[in-house]
Amino acid sequence: LPASMYTEIQRERPDGGNILTHPDYIDGNPDLIKPKKLLNPVKASKSHQELHRELLMNHKRGLGVDSKPELQRVLEHRRRDLLIKQKKEEEEAKKLQSPFEKELLKRHQRLDQLEKQQEKQEDHAPEFIKVKENLRRTSTVTGDEKAA
């Protein structure tokens, strides 16, 4: 009996029990515009196609995905060599400073040492001397401002 009910339902539905509707363009109506499949912009791009082609070639050769193409390896090698040359040139430039630059550097170092020594001496001086120096500075500044 359940099998007979199924056959009755099949007779009631002319489309064979399919719930999905059929598209209208199958009828062959010439007034309707037939839809076209949309292109995937990623797959349509040249860079994607070239990358895909390169991956297929590497797969056929038996190369792994991790290996880089020859052009990229050469460019990275050149970049690395260029950086090494620049570092060597900078080091040579530092070594081959003119005598004038060397003398300036020595004087600058001496001045830095003198300033450090003065700061150390000021730190060891009694506090009343520090306060007295600050008072002298403020009194000269205020006197200069009054004159101006």
Task: Considering the chains and any ligands shown, give keywords for the structure.
148 residues; mainly alpha; cytoplasm; cell projection
Overview of this protein structure:
The chain is mainly α and 148 residues long. Among the domains are: 68-97; 98-132. It is built from six helices and no strands. The radius of gyration is 44 Å and the shape is elongated.
Distance between the termini: 120 Å
Task: List the helices and strands in order.
Answer: HHHHHH
Reported for the largest beta sheet, the result is: none
- Radius of gyration, in angstroms, nearest whole number: 44 Å
Strand segment tally: 0
Overall pLDDT score: 77
Spans where pLDDT lies below 50 across 5 or more residues: none
> Any idea what the shape is?
elongated
Broad structural category:
mainly alpha
β content, as a range? Answer: under 5%
Number of helices: 6
Helix content: over 70%
GO molecular function, one term: actin binding
Biased composition (Basic and acidic residues): 109-136
InterPro entries: FAM107
Region (Disordered): 109-148
